[in-house]
Amino acid sequence: MKYLFFLLTTLAAFAQSGKVNGLQLENITYPFPVSEITIDSQGQKLQMAYMDAKPQKANGKTIVLLHGKNFAGYYWEQTAKDLNKAGYRVIMPDQIGFGKSGKPTNIQYSFQWLAQNTKAVLDKLKIDKAIILGHSMGGMLATRFALMYPETTEKLILENPIGLEDWKTVVPYPSIDDWYANEIHQTAESIKEYQLKFYFDNKWKPEYDKGVEMLAGWTRNKDYSIIAKNSALTYDMIFTQPVVYEFQNIQAPTLLIIGQRDRTALGKSNASKEVQATLGNYPKLGKETQQKIKGSRLVEIENVGHLPHIEAYEKFIAPLLEFLKVGQ
Question: Where does the record locate the signal sequence feature (predicted)?
Answer without folding.
Answer: 1-15
